[in-house]
Amino acid sequence: MNKNGPIIVIEDDKDDQELMLEAFQELGYKNEIRFFGDGELALDHLVNNDVEPFIVFSDINMPKLNGMELREKIHNNEDLRLKSIPYLFFSTTAEQQFIIDAYSKSVQGFFVKPTKYSDLRDTLKTIIEYWKTCVSPNYVK
Question: pTM of the prediction?
């Protein structure tokens, strides 16, 4: 895990993207924020670029390649798996079956998007602070 790497947000809703960007900016993290509107674009970026992200926030319901399918592809890619990139679901959907499926795919967290901006900011801060403190193996290619 590269704590100074970009934060990847896979979210097809532009309003949610803007709110998350505003919250990250307000929190003052130095990590670059990279948004992708669907799972295919995000996977292509992760596989075909020499990027070592800090963390991935993924919605579940997205066009082309949904969050569950994307998580499985990342988990099955040895190079990406060895980077120990925290993969979190950040979704408006909190159905029990989605949560079970997410954790069965070794997701590191499942969060419901808060509806209030202040709660969104506080949730993002809690998540980022946790992972900034967490220790992970060093990635060597």
Answer: 0.92
